Amino acid sequence: MSAAQNAPGKPASGTPAAAAFATLFLLLPAGLVLGAAFLLPLARLFGLSGSMPAGVLAPYLELLGDDVYRKVFFNTVFFAIVVTAVTLVLGYPLALALARMRAGWRALFLLAVLMPLWISVLVRTFSWMLLLERNGPINRALIASGLTDTPMSLLFNKTGVLIGMVHVLLPYAVLPIFGAILRIDPALLRASEGLGAPRHVTFRRVLLPLSMRGVATAATFVFLLSLGFFITPALLGGASEITLSMLVENLVNERLAWPLAAAASVILLALTLALLAVAGRFLSPAAVAGVGR
Amino acid sequence: MTGRGGIGLNLFAAAMAAFLVLPIAAVVPAAFSQSSFIRLPPEAWSLRWWHVFLADPSWRRALVKSIEVATWAAALSVVAGTAAALGIARLRGTARRLALALFVGPVVVPVIVLAVALYALARSTGMVGTTAGLVIAHTMLALPYVALNVGVSLGMLDPRLGLAAAGLGASPWRVFRTVTLPLIRPGVLGGAVFAFVTSFDEVVLSIFLAGPTVKTLPVRIWEEIRIEYTPVVAVAATVMIALALAAAGASRLFRRRAA
Asked: In chain B, what residues touch A112 (CB-CB under 8 Å)?
């Protein structure tokens, strides 16, 4: 927060020095919390990753050179890509429908999109454990409908992880796309239709390009959140669906391999920041804050 | 429903709304089952597992601990976050961008990375298994949302109001208390509720920092469902849903008052 010191304060109160002091004073409590519980731990983790006797890069080389770990990286990126694609395909039409609804219906449907965000990911994932069970309601319904004779395995495998992650992350795809569609001037769509363009042409040539910024924001959010997802893959996945965040947990709690865990965390963080740097121009801090609820 | 959407699009939206909401509701009937294992829907209904939940000191302690930690985290992050929003509003240029980047940090860094980093630090400072450790971690997580929320409220404020009060001789603290705070109150209250729920729902930081002594409700649920679980876990999950929905309702109320 040292940058605050030489910041020009607003001339609201007294001399510039007094104004700068007041600004610093206001930022101090949050600065202390973020310094002690965010910057310091991350800096120490970075240091920890370079603490192997074999050299600073040793844990990174071990992680990147091993087939088992490569599988983990593959799983992580695989889930992120598939979940992003599925949430965009499901989220776009939902956002479009929301944008076209009358106010009352829209409020109700927005509630359905926003309400899940208030409920702990752990609870949402636990619900899926009950639903996807071997003898759970979904398998019983599938058997009753004659689609399958024996229960399908929907839990502790890729299917379970994908269903759970899509469910948790769908709202993050819907909201930015919904916002982007709302900002489109309806006159443009009417003009396209008035000029005789069929519906799918209006969609492809007018609606989709104009809402692309929202789609890009949605894709970035979902991909970012997928990369670091922990609770859902840990509970719904099996032994062969280990993701990077599960690997970190395992290295810390089961194998007590701190330098490796720190290095894996740094890699996950680097992936996240690289993605943000690339997609950064789509995102404002306010948009990122909107990720919350 | 509406003319322009087309029936197919609206049916799809209805299916998606059901997909978003119904799976979460599935856990509630499981809490009222009679048998010792979970079957949806339950074959016989009872309050048996609610009695078990309330009679078990470890579940009761977890609920109380969750509320205690969330209350502290909400209070601290509202005070620090509101002050920070006021501070950031006074910054310009690079300083402002740097401050905003720092505040967005805890939101974009994967929570497992934060958890492991905090765990490493907490281990070497004896903070694992302390209420203070959990409160600080949760405050770090919730603070950016409060600061950015209040920042939005501040952005909608006419700066001339504060200047007028100051010009009439009010001290900065008096300007804040009598002019600024009443006008940004919806943002502050909304931030407080949000911070409370962020802490109450938080699992990942908590399972690393809780140790054997300060298990919150999500930590207890996490431990149970990784092994063998009974419907009592569904009771705990239902309690969490009820509290989160109450908070969401309160937050809507604040926002409506603001409008």
From this structure: 17, 20-21
